[in-house]
Every structure is written in C-alpha cells, then in structure tokens.
Amino acid sequence: MYIDILILSQLMHSPKHGYEIKKNVAFLLGKSNTINNNYLYPTLKRFEEMGAITKQLELQENRPNRHIYSITETGKEFFYSLLNEFPPEFARNQDEIFNRLAFFELLEQETREQVISGRIRYIEENLAHIEGLVHSLEDNRFLPMSPIMHEYSKLQMKAELDFFTRLKERSEICKDPE
Known about the structure:
Helix content: 55-70%
Largest sheet: 3 strands, antiparallel
Number of helices: 7
Order of helices and strands: HEHHEEHHHH
Low-confidence stretches: none
Strand content: 5-15%
C-alpha cells in the first residue's frame, strides 16, 4: 500500500507524466527499491477508473505524446484515507513505517498513536526474542557470528525503540487539548 501512497503523493503538488512519477518514487524509495512499469501504469489506470486521478494527452513535437496525470478531490480524499489506514500488521513492515513517518504531520492523531505504539510493541517483541536466542545458544561453535549478529540486531532495535519512545513523548506533548 505504501507505493500507492507514494504515487498519489506525487500528484498532490502538481500534475505529472508517468515517467516523472516513476522517477520521483524511485528517488524516494532509494536505489535498492524501484517501481516498475508493470506496477505503475496498472495502478494509475486503477486510480483513474475509481475517479482518483484524471489523464490528459499531451501532444509533443518530434517526440511521442505522453499522458499527464492529475489528482482529483476524490483522489486527495483517497490519499488521506490510505495514509491513515494502518492495520496492526503494518507495524512489522519497515516500508509502511517509513512511509507513515515521511507523512507524519499529515496523519490523524489516532493513526500517529497506532504507528508509534504498534512499532514499539513490535520492537519489544523482537528484543525479547533475541534475548531468548542468546540465552538458548549454549554451544555456538557452529554459529560463530551469531553473538555478533545478535548484538548488532539488539543495538539497531534499541536505537529504533529509543527513537519511537521519544516520538511518542513528543506526540503526547503536541496532542490537541480536548
């Protein structure tokens, strides 16, 4: 779902042609993660069929014509609904987490809390699992790197836990008074 959010986010500022959307989304995802035409264009077609975007043909001289996509009011509403849809299993998916963090200011307060508390629970479960593994590996002669790997994983998770704990504290301070 996070790629759908990224695609729609590209149209929130201005209309774009497909290649420009693809290039911007690839930039956001990083070099290790790309979006291919077999996903992009069927997704744009699906968005068009549901009324979330419109498509116009742009005529070009000495080059192939291209389609320019624009988001509609329905598309904007759909973007915000996708952004704020956060089932508990998304807390385990780093891409979904990073995408929600990228648009954190646009999230509803309830979704912010779901993202933060869900990720904290996930990290705490993983830390407990790693601790259990470390204690159960009495003979690690055949897994010589496992103590180092466990330590590395624990350090990463503790840093992420610290980040989300601080984000939670900051988010609670910034809550709107009811």
